[in-house]
């Protein structure tokens, strides 16, 4: 199988056991780390009036990614459901980038270095989620009764 940017293999392991935890997924690890970083950044870097406006939207969209990856993983037995939740995570990634761009363009987020860091990290995450969805689509093995 090609490198999808994820450590998790789509096919089952030799011992027949499926993936052990969503915490093993690179896409989850990155999404979780970024959600925590975004949360902290919004509390420290944004003006008070943005905390409950665009800052809140940014926090919600960033936290939506790891949550949807976890929920999809819980339904991984069902290929279409797994893909649906990964697609929602991917859409939340785009939404998060949009909120970052709005904050930067309105000068509520003035730290250009932080802005560029998050934009770049979310672009990488977006590609990884997309590659992971492709890997699931083409390599998913449903659990069948033997």
Rg:
17 Å
**Count of the separate structural domains:** 1
CATH architecture: Up-down Bundle
Helix and strand sequence: HHHH
Unreliable residue runs: 1-17, 142-146
CATH class: Mainly Alpha
- Strand percent estimate: under 5%
The total beta strand count reads 0
Here the CATH topology equals: de novo design (two linked rop proteins)
CATH homologous superfamily heading: 23S rRNA-intervening sequence
The general outline is elongated
How would you sum up this structure, described in words?
By secondary structure, the chain is an all-alpha fold. It has one domain (22-139): 23S rRNA-intervening sequence (de novo design (two linked rop proteins)). The protein has four helices and no strands. The protein has helices at residues 26-45, 54-74, 79-105, 112-139. The longest helix is centred in the C-terminal third of the chain and has 28 residues, at 112-139. It is elongated, with a radius of gyration of 17 Å. The chain starts with 25 loop residues before the first helix and ends in a 7-residue tail after the last helix. Residues 1-17 and 142-146 have low confidence and may be disordered.
Write a concise keyword list for the protein shown above.
146 residues; mainly alpha; de novo design (two linked rop proteins); disordered C terminus
Q: What's the topology here?
A:
Layout: H1 26-45, H2 54-74, H3 79-105, H4 112-139
Helix pairs in contact: 1-2, 1-4, 2-3, 3-4
């Amino acid at each position: 199988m090609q490198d999808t940017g994820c450590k998790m293999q789509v096919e089952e392991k030799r011992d027949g056991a499926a993936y052990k935890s969503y915490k093993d997924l690179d896409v989850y690890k990155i999404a979780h780390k970024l959600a925590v970083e975004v949360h902290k950044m919004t509390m420290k870097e944004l003006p008070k009036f943005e905390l409950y406006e665009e800052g809140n939207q940014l926090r919600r969209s960033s936290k939506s990614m790891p949550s949807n990856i976890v929920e999809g993983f819980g339904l991984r037995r069902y290929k279409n459901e797994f893909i649906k939740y990964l697609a929602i995570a991917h859409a939340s990634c785009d939404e998060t980038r949009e909120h970052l761009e709005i904050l930067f363009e309105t000068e509520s987020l003035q730290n250009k270095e932080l802005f560029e860091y998050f934009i770049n990290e979310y672009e990488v995450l977006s590609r990884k989620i997309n590659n992971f969805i492709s890997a699931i689509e083409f390599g998913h093995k449903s659990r069948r009764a033997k």
